[in-house]
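Model it.
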Amino acid sequence: QVQLAESGGGSVQAGGSLRLSCAASGYIANYCLAWFRQAPGKAREGVAVIGSDGITSYADSVKGRFAISKDNAKNIFYLQMNSLKPEDTAMYYCAAGLRCYEYSYGGQGTQVTVSS
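Modeled.
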């Protein structure tokens, strides 16, 4: 059982940056780790994934602006968000699973609000 806790959300103006963190209660080295987001009235969207091998994948909407990374020693992974846009406003959730796209564990979410 792995518990995840997000932090780092907040309010920022368009063009600004935020770094989200997801702290895990156990070892994450063997897990596929991901960030999702959900805006009011919209479906949940996958934002970024990092595999146990460190290979990353991003939604087209955030490519070149967001970066997912992890620190296996600290059992924390991150989402660096740059050049934020109002359409990035959403609740952001982290998730983990032994297989990518099959996530067994998720956090409670952290709100990101980007104003124009």
